[in-house]
Design brief:
single chain; 412 residues; alpha/beta; Aspartate Aminotransferase, domain 1; Aspartate Aminotransferase, domain 2; seven-stranded mixed sheet; binds ligand C6P
Length: 412
């Protein structure tokens, strides 16, 4: 496998042509959202200039073209994650909406008083709050898998928490705070033996590694387009056909019905049952173009590139005595995302000072307050890589954190 060339890739991304206060833009906030190549921007423009219409509704040319583009994008998503059927792919706005849909619909069907739902303590709020609401309404019980000192889930903890009382397990593939890649194969296998269904939050993994949903055997799997070079406002919910067929609709309205009477209605087949109202066709088209782009480069090369950057960054950061890293040190257990703290300096100050050097990172609780409480840290700073990041980006970031110390009077 030949290495990818990030400097070449950067040429496709117009955002990197700009300078931030005369510095190269060092964008290390890819866990929050990613930048778009011209191929994605052009695909969206092209759709808007030539094919825009309301899909599935009209007999005219534009409506037909919009329908074709929407369906083509869905087929690209199906192939991208190797789902068996196109009906198993539902477009939503984002990961958050996908999980809300599942918690509402699947939860309503499966959860009764005393039934258990198991999450990891490291979940993003989007994979906690929808379940909290469900158990308050239905009388279920929320249980958490805890992590060891390295931020990993042990086999014993999986067996302790996922039992024959568990009806749903919902867990992130990769933590957006620790970068840990959780042992989801083991979790899915054990949960299935216990008779539970499994929801995987793939928001942080899908953009960075090859997902084969049939091999993984997850029952439901969700992710967002904007974290994988696509536009905001388009997300995906994958579900096994038999599970989706059994789930009641989430949003009610146009496009998701079969017949409507004065007092009741019957619903359209999959996937339309879950796609009420006019859909985000330009978002779907943009996501389709993003998938084309990622596949052309190759997910395995992207993953390798990020591993190289992570190893390089961890080495350089750990050589600074005042830097502490959260999460596993073992590269095999983590993705291209590093949370860190610097002695005596608040993460928000680190992010603000780095910004003045053109280095964009994230700081705060990362929408994972239960995890921050569990780790007993109020906040962290975080860098996260993608295919267009370079070793030079890491060097500029590391020089930046040395300068943060100097700025605040701590010396080097
Ligand atoms: N995390 C970050 O870490 P939306 O906003 O719906 O596209 O994605 C929500 C979400 C769900 N699960 C995980 C694991 C996530 O990381 C995120 C989004 C971003 O910077 C924003 S808080």
């Amino acid at each position: 496998m030949h290495k990818l060339n990030p400097e070449e890739i950067r040429k496709d991304f117009p955002i990197f042509k700009q300078r931030i206060q005369d510095n190269r833009l060092v964008y290390l906030d890819n866990g929050a959202t990613t930048q778009k190549p011209m191929q994605v921007i052009n695909a969206i423009n092209n759709y808007n200039q030539n094919s825009h219409g309301n899909p599935h509704r009209g007999a005219h040319q534009l409506s037909i073209r919009a329908t074709e583009e929407y369906d083509l994008a869905k087929e690209k998503v199906r192939k991208f994650i190797n789902a068996r059927y196109i009906e198993e792919i539902i477009f939503t706005r984002n990961t958050t909406e996908s999980i809300n849909l599942i918690a509402y619909s699947c939860g309503k069907k499966l959860i009764n008083k005393g039934d258990e739902i198991v999450l990891a303590i490291s979940e993003h709020h989007s994979n906690i709050l929808p379940w909290q609401r469900l158990v308050k309404e239905n009388g279920g019980i929320l249980k958490y898998i805890y992590l060891n000192e390295e931020g990993r889930i042990s086999p014993e903890e999986i067996k302790r928490k996922i039992t024959d009382r568990t009806k749903i397990v919902s867990i992130a593939h990769m933590s957006n705070v620790l970068g840990t890649i959780h042992p989801i194969e083991e979790i899915i296998d054990h949960a299935h033996k216990m008779g539970s269904i499994v929801v995987i939050d793939g928001a942080q993994s899908t953009p960075h590694m090859k997902i084969d949903i049939q091999k993984l055997d997850a029952d439901l799997f969700v992710f967002s387009g904007h974290k994988m070079l696509g536009p905001m406002g388009i997300g995906v919910l994958y579900g096994k056909k038999e599970i989706l067929e059994d789930m009641p609709p989430f949003l009610m309205g146009g496009d998701m019905i079969e017949y409507v009477y004065e007092q009741e209605a019957t619903f359209a087949p999959l996937p339309y049952k879950f796609e009420a109202g006019t859909q985000n066709v330009e978002g779907a088209v943009g996501l389709g173009a993003a998938i084309d782009y990622l596949e052309k480069i190759g997910l395995d090369r992207i993953e390798n590139h990020e591993k190289m950057l992570t190893e390089y960054a961890l080495d350089r950061m750990l050589s600074l005595p005042y830097v502490s890293i959260q999460g596993p040190k073992d590269l095999e257990m983590r993705g291209g995302l590093i949370s860190f703290t610097i002695d005596d300096i608040h993460p928000h100050d680190i992010a603000t000072i780095l910004d003045s050097y053109g280095v964009a990172i994230r700081a705060g609780h990362h929408c994972a307050q239960p995890l921050m409480r569990y780790l007993d840290v109020p906040a962290t700073s975080r860098i996260s890589f993608y295919l267009y990041n370079t070793k030079e980006d890491v060097d500029l970031f590391v020089e930046g954190i040395k300068n943060v110390r100097k700025w605040l009077g701590y010396g080097s």
